Amino acid sequence: MEPTAALNESAAAVPWLPARAGNASLELASRPPAPTAINPWDVMLCVSGTAIACENAIVVAIICYSPTLRTPMFVLIGSLATADLLAGLGLILNFVFQYVIRSETVSLLTVGFLVASFAASVSSLLAITVDRYLSLYNALTYYSERTVLCIHTMLVCTWGVSLCLGLLPVLGWNCLHDRTACSVVRPLTKSNVTLLSASFFLIFIIMLHLYIEICKIVCRHAHQIALQQHFLTASHYVATKKGVSTLAIILGTFGASWLPFAIYCVVGDPDYPSVYTYATLLPATYNSMINPIIYAYRNQEIQRSMWVLFCGCFQSKVSFRSRSPSDV
What we know:
By secondary structure, the chain is mostly helical. It has one domain (40-309): Rhodopsin 7-helix transmembrane proteins (Rhopdopsin 7-helix transmembrane proteins), CATH 1.20.1070.10. It has nine helices and two strands. The protein has helices at 3-11, 40-65, 72-99, 104-137, 145-170, 190-228, 234-267, 274-297, 300-311; strands spanning 17-18, 185-186. α7 (234-267) runs antiparallel to α8. It is globular and about 70 Å long. The relative contact order is 0.14. Residues 1-33 and 313-323 have low confidence and may be disordered.
């Protein structure tokens, strides 16, 4: 067998790794493999996964520990933190299995776990956006049983669809036995990553539309308050500007993190250098690192619960303001 053919055949089973063109640094062969040098990109992904897991584990612990954080808003934040926590653990396990346990079964399980986790993370962001919109659009009826039912339905759909997407590679939608069908992320097929990218683009468009509607509602509320008080105060202007800026930062961060990877999955070729895949995949993982800062640690009720959890006491002189879902 030609050396290049043997290398391409062995590289096909590497879990959650970019496709390589003849210069793969990681191989999976039927014979006992020689010690492989650790790829610095894989180290960065593992470090990113560790930071993600630690950050989101704290959020999950706080929400589970605090009985007051049982509202639909915090249930959705908990869903997002859980998905990001699993994604971080998946990146760590991928690094370990990639260099310690090399098998097709582990490869498929790892990639399926990561696909399901990141899909749940992105879907949870959409659910939070929908919740924010409902809290403003239906402010009078938001705290009702209908809202609770809507939140639970979104959670079931979020995790159900994410689980199905994660099972696709395990159930046979992979390129372990057909290298011509491989995508830039092996062992996912081109059609698989196209489906994932199309799903992301759809979610991004829906979030963009909802955040535009939220901005319109916020500006309209500020205008109504100004009419009631006969003038627009500086505080109203600042609050409106801050709210719109926050929404722009949230959507901008989400798009900047995931759009490059989603676009490259569609237009990229498995013969391209692996650095392109790593360079777009790594920023996508940063979104899970930023999520707890945006959606959890900025919330004052979670800050108070953190104080109680880690300090064992609460100083009543510290003022905390109850926040609505639209503030999170």
